[in-house]
Amino acid sequence: MDLLGPLRVSRDGVEVPLPSVKQRLLLAGLLLRPNEVVGTDELLAVLWSDEPPASATANLRTYVHGLRRALGPSGRERITATAGGYLIRLSPGERDLDRFDAAVARGRASLAAGEPEQAAMHLADALDMWRGAPLSDLPHSPLLARRIRRLVERRLLAEEDHAAARLAAGAAAGVIERLRALVEQHPLRQRAWAHLMTALYHTGDVSGALDAFQQARGALAEQTGLDPGPELVRLRDGILHHRLASGAPGPAIGGPAAGGPATGGPVTGNPAARQRDDRRPAQLPLALPRFIGREPELSRLDHWLDDGTAGPTTVVISAVSGMAGVGKTALALRWAHRVADRFPDGQLYLNLRGYDDVDAVSAAEALRSFLETLGVSDARIPTTTDARIGLYRSLLATRRMLILLDNARDSDQVRPLLPGTGFCAVVITSRDQLNGLIRVEGAKPLTLNVLTEQESRNLLGNWLGAERIDGEPDAVTGIIDAAGRLPLALSIVAARMAAKPTLPLTAFATELRRHEALLDALDDGDVRRVFSWSYRALSEQAAELFRLLGLHPGPDLTAGVAAALSGQTPAAVTAPLRELTRLHLLTEHQPGRYVLHDLLRTYAAELAASGTRDDHRRAAYQRLYDHYLHQAYPAARLLQPQWAPIPPMPQLPDSLATPLAGRQAALDWFAAERRVLVRIVRQAADTGFGTYAWQLAWALTAFLAPHGLWQDQLTVQQIAVASAETAGDLGGQAMANRMLARAALRLNRHDVAERRLECALKLYERIGDLTGQAQTLHSRTELAYEVGKPQDALVYGRQALRLHRLANSAAGEGRTLNAIGYIYATTGEYELAIASCTEALALQEKIDDRNGQAATLDSLGFAHERLGAHEHAVDLYERSIRLFRDSADRYHEAETLVRLGDVRATMGDLAAAGKAWRRATEIYDSLGDPAADDTRSRLARLDGK
């Protein structure tokens, strides 16, 4: 399905006719957001712009029906109706846009690895996929036009990257004609002008290069009233003074290649990058210490690995399937540890939680996790799943890594996480047989059955000792039969028997038989019988705690949370936690953090539903949410003291929540609890505690936003909006809409951000909240600036400033003054910028907003540098750096260090410039941010002078 030109659909190599324009528009709207729900309102906007007819919704259903029929037998499976919209299911690479993104990612990775010829080839392949303007055969509604502009921007960035690669490869003459065509059509792209100037200079046409600068300046002045940016000016100066090294592509200006490719992260093919990366991933959990048997299965995995790695581009995929509790993960981990030394680039591991009803890991989330592990910073991780897939496969293409994907739901969940080529091995565990992977990707199937009789005896002997096993062979046989030779059930039984070494095994066998008829048969994979046997043996206190743990959504919890659920003190739950852990009904998988096997959690939840009174369950839920809220709220205030606080739900009288010791403790707590909190927000909404839900979402955002976890923020704020609406809380609705808009803005969903900000502003106006109105207008300032409307941004900024002053919000006033000043500086209004930022700084110093001061000093340095006041800019940058360092904001410290180095270089103090750039490089390296490549380029050019 092709978007990069007229819309084109083919099946088995034959083009599929779609005669209806509405059907083609509908398909385009779905294809632009594959594998995610596209809302009905959005599709109506694609089909009818802003004036849909009264019958639009019914017509939409008709078009969907016709489109499914046109797509053939798979049409109904591909396009499915969901709550609120429709979804089209696509595999990676089905769209030409996917293939384009993947080729671009390969090109950028090659460019970062110092392989410009290879990069140019990949980028040329990507650009050749364009057959014209995207969806050029369709009418463009405003919404569709915005989406198409983003596609065009991706092509233009790829064009510029292609030129950079050709220049780095020494092929300057070969890019001039293509660059001239690019700047004629898009005369405001300063990076393209820079590449053209550089290419002309390296072909000996110095006057042509300088003339290109004058053309760029004229176009910018005519269409925007702005002068060329400082990078383009520096390039012009370098050409005038013949300071460009032969073959060098010149200074980076904007775009993905500025400061390293958009891909980021280390690339194995680059020896320098390999040398820098001393963080080889080693994510495998510990193998189970009591692992028994499975030698034929381990040998088969060994054989597949040996056969598969003979080829140069082989990815070995093994699919280990079997019933719940049969030991799939234990086998995979045992084998993975056994062969780990054959994978010098490390091991990746992820529990996909495929059978978790609450929180199965999405492809986008899994890819983000792996990309972070591979060294890609939050800022460089693509927002779309398809782009993440391309980047992930590019980074693995030259690595030899072992990847263990545990507890997969089905083939579709796994497929985006498979490497495309290279020397990697992938092991997948699943209750599903994964026939799709076996059929299409050539995965090797390994079905795991229950243990043999002898393996079962060996497992029990490992727990109990050979003497005890050999002394009562008939009882052992009865126990093995009752447990169905299932490793999980046998381990639970063995743990209890080991805890009572003097009790005859016959007594255990008799008790197991007594409960056989109470539950379903084990033949179907149902281990309730063994669970019930162990549960009935618990002390009353441990049994009650086990039931209550079934109310927790997971994935793990602390002793404090267990105490809150039970309404007791942490000391009171120590003994029952120890009892549950000793009997393998609970696992302490990290110090102080406990997890239930998914089968045991389901069983505990069943017990809670049937054996606990409704009012007791509701009270336990409230204690749980109270505990998390009153841990999260003060932690959020520690992280974001300048945020306008919300009035949280009153703390319960017997609450166990205690304030954290400081900012670092708050960061550590949120990092440990983030996944839990996302689930808790959802569960609080589902169980009728909507106010807790939106307030927890507010607190969680204090951690999510600074860490760039925008998809999580989008998720929790969508729940928060619905919860606040159900609760009739206008303030909560306004807050959640504003924070939802912020997440949408960072995910480049500008239309969603605009709608949500409009809604938030109306709600804040309705309740008379001036600070909320000002914050919303500040967000509108950011949105307008992001979409290229600086004058609109200034209007919103001034409105926000007025309201902050009326509300006596000094922190908001200072930050908005700085935002206005920065926008002035980017539009060349340097004196206005300095006046606004100076006012901001005075206010921030008065209220001791140190991080705000750091940002404002950086903005002032930016303005003074462009006015030529270099000494003053240096002083401002150095003050900004000290404050960023004091507030542990290392990323922005590095950014300002880069600018400090730039101005030092302009002043001719190359030693000081090199010192600043080296410090920035060290920080970027410690953060795993690919911007380090840009600072290294600066240092390399410095060494070459």
TrEMBL record:
Gly residues composition-biased segments: 252-267
InterPro entries: AfsR-DnrI-RedD_regulator, BTAD, NB-ARC, OmpR/PhoB-type_DNA-bd, P-loop_NTPase, Sig_transdc_resp-reg_C-effctor, TPR-like_helical_dom_sf, TPR_rpt
MF-aspect GO terms: ADP binding; DNA binding
A Gene Ontology biological process term: regulation of DNA-templated transcription
Pfam families reported in the protein's UniProt record: BTAD, NB-ARC, TPR_12, Trans_reg_C
Protein's UniProt keywords contain GTP-binding: no
Positions annotated as TPR repeat: 854-887
Taxonomic superkingdom: Bacteria
Keywords, sorted A to Z: DNA-binding, TPR repeat, Transcription, Transcription regulation
UniProt cross-references to PROSITE patterns, sorted A to Z: OMPR_PHOB, TPR
DNA-binding residues (ranges): 1-90
Annotated spans, Disordered: 246-280
Domain called OmpR/PhoB-type: residue spans: 1-90
Family according to the record: Belongs to the AfsR/DnrI/RedD regulatory family.
Name of the protein: BTAD domain-containing putative transcriptional regulator
Taxonomic path: Bacteria, Bacillati, Actinomycetota, Actinomycetes, Micromonosporales
